Hints:
Layout: H1 3-7, E1 11-17, H2 24-31, E2 37-43, H3 49-55, E3 59-63, H4 69-83, E4 87-90, H5 102-108, E5 115-119, H6 129-146, E6 158-161, H7 162-167, H8 177-187, E7 192-196, H9 210-215
Parallel strand pairs: 1-2, 1-4, 2-3, 5-7
Antiparallel strand pairs: 4-6, 5-6
Amino acid sequence: xxxxxxxxxxxxxxxxxxxxxKYIGSVVLKTREYADEVIxxxxxxxxxxxxxxxxxxxxxxxxxxxKGYGATIQSIFREARKREPDILVVIDADSQHKPDEIPLxxxxxxxxxxxxxxxxxxxxxxxxxxxxxxQKILLRATRFLSGEKLADSESGFRAFSxxxxxxxxxxxxxxxxxAETIVAASENGFKIGEVPISINYTEDSSTLNPVQHGxx
Length: 216
């Protein structure tokens, strides 16, 4: 990390959200403590996700219709490039991640990493078995494609340096963008690290079956 970044980095935290009115308010409020700006990328929600996020203090960018997780991450990167932050953190909107662990990822970037992934490996006992199966399929595929020996390639809790924000060109529209990010980072010579995080799965966390996702 550059010296200016290490001294006083400008941090943007962004969250992709689709019909997350139940959680988005608390996620934004807790996240604001660690960010210069919180961006919620609302992916065509039919509920009050956007309204609640604005009331909680987030900058809200809306897709007019649901475009998918990958398209939402691409929009987040476009918004980040306009602002040129020192660090971009992406965190899920369904409260499965703890905003107070954002500093763990931000601090790890100071070790010259370009991307830091919040790894759920230490918490795998708290992850439903069918999810672990899907994650294992995805992990092996990503390791094969990228050559990176990561413990958790699919976590949505990630931090990116300015170099990674400006240098990653992503194309996947769906959930495969998580793997594409790792592959693209490896191809560009970006250094990838991991830090252990907590995980909280609720009954409505993630609507996509991870086994189907992994096979896909």
